[in-house]
Amino acid sequence: MKEETTKMLQIAKDLDRVLSEFVFGNHIGLATFQREPKKWRSIFDKLGAIEVLDRNETYGLMLKPEIFDLMRDYIHALEEQLEEAQLDLLFARRGENMKWVSGEELQKSALESFDNRIDAIRGLLDGQQ
Q1: Of 48, 89, 109, 127, which cross-links 64 as Cys (Cβ 3.0–4.6 Å)?
Q2: 50, 43 Cβ separation under 8 angstroms
Q3: Strand stretches in the chain, DSSP E
Q4: Tens digit of pLDDT per residue, the chain (129 long)?
């Protein structure tokens, strides 16, 4: 868990460093994008991201691969944290209602369950449902 937290903090730090340099407003128009590649490439090389506008509305956002990878890693880490929180909540809500068993006790319980439903299981296997 500590390794995941450390990894998440590092990803967040790297992403914050990159995004703090980029703000919406570092943009070029679509016509400039098409006609003057030197102009936008210098901004793109410096910031790693650039907003492309069409009629003063965001048409797209161009990111360098390493920035995209940082964002993807960050989103993936957030999804993992959300999944863990959802599982924790699920188990907390179930609380004492669940009886967890393992090992021989689990094996014995499973065999008893099969024995209690042998006729139904046999019917399924024989095609009688």
Answers
A1: 48
A2: yes
A3: 27-29, 49-54, 57-63
A4: 577 777 777 777 777 766 666 565 578 888 888 898 888 888 888 878 888 889 988 888 888 898 888 888 888 888 888 888 888 888 888 776 777 778 888 888 888 988 888 888 888 888 775
Cα dihedral sign for 62, 65, 70, 76? Answer: positive
Q: In a 10 Å sphere around its CB, with 0-12 CB exposed, 13-18 middle and 19+ buried, how is residue 11 labelled? A: buried
Name the residue among 69, 68, 79 with its Cα closest to residue 4. Answer: 79
Amino acid symbol at 129: Q
User: What would the two tokens of residue 49 be?
Assistant: 């991201």
Q: Which token pair is 100?
A: 């967890």
